[in-house]
Specification:
The protein is mostly helical. It is built from 16 helices and no strands.
Amino acid sequence: MSAIFACIIFAAVSGSSPATVAAIGSIMIGAIRADGYSDNFSVGAIVCSGSLGILIPPSIILIVYGVTVDQSIGKLFMAGVVPGIFLGAMLMLVTYIAAVKGGFKKTKRASNREIWDSFKDAIWGLFVIIIIIGGIYGGLFTPTEAAAVAAMYGFFVVKFIYRDLTWKQIPEVIKSSAATAAMIMFIIANAMLFAYLLTIQQIPQQLAAWIIGMNLNKYTFLIFVNLLLLLAGNFMEPSSLIMIIAPLIFPVAMKLGIDPIHLGVIITVNMEIGMLTPPVGLNLFVASGISGLSLGDVVKASVPWFFALLIGLFFVTYVPLISLWLPKLMYGG
């Protein structure tokens, strides 16, 4: 549950699901294993909670949706907060139930002094979140620039404050970082090539046109949109899929009275789930790479948390207030 919470926090920094899985998974999977949990338990929890990276702001996918259909990025960011926390809570609930049924022993509760001492030790590391989020929302730098600032700050803290890094270890750190980045970028590049193949064959457009032509009401339309996105998400990288599908379904959704901000959150949650389904589930490949498990084992491990996300998608789809409460509070209307 702490690992899931860490994914929620890191999601507010990265805006990327594969990056969240890589960053948190490389630290927490080993720690969870060391505490006596099975490989399936540790990997399953991380790979699914890492998907929150594209929902909790700042979200790359929400930006792509906003730009594609000309909607407020600020409202979309606010709309992603409550659903992200809601889905994170559902993943924690599944973890708790599975741990109780599995008979995992509780660890000894830390004293208030130990908690305070740990917080003091971690404060320099936690400050990177303030730098990134404060810098982006304060207009000091772009998300890309924020990544560079965070990397330099992290190096300074680890090298000169925590003193956990020697000069001799730096080449190995660079090598490891490059390997992880190359793995993610290689997967994305191939996903985009596959998306291009589907696009030139007009497959997503044909599916969308079929659904639009059925003259559905608002509720059945949302069912078919979810099915379309879940199916297409199996084969396409999220940004490419949104740029293809969103302009097709957006006008129909507006005629049916569906809020455009709510629609953006629904699409993004579907993209989350697409990150967990082969053959182009980016999170699965990243988790496989950092855990050493086969892709099939990662898929099996993620099943309980995967179904929790599906249930969460149902609530996000048919309870618009989950997505719209915070934007209305912040922006009115």
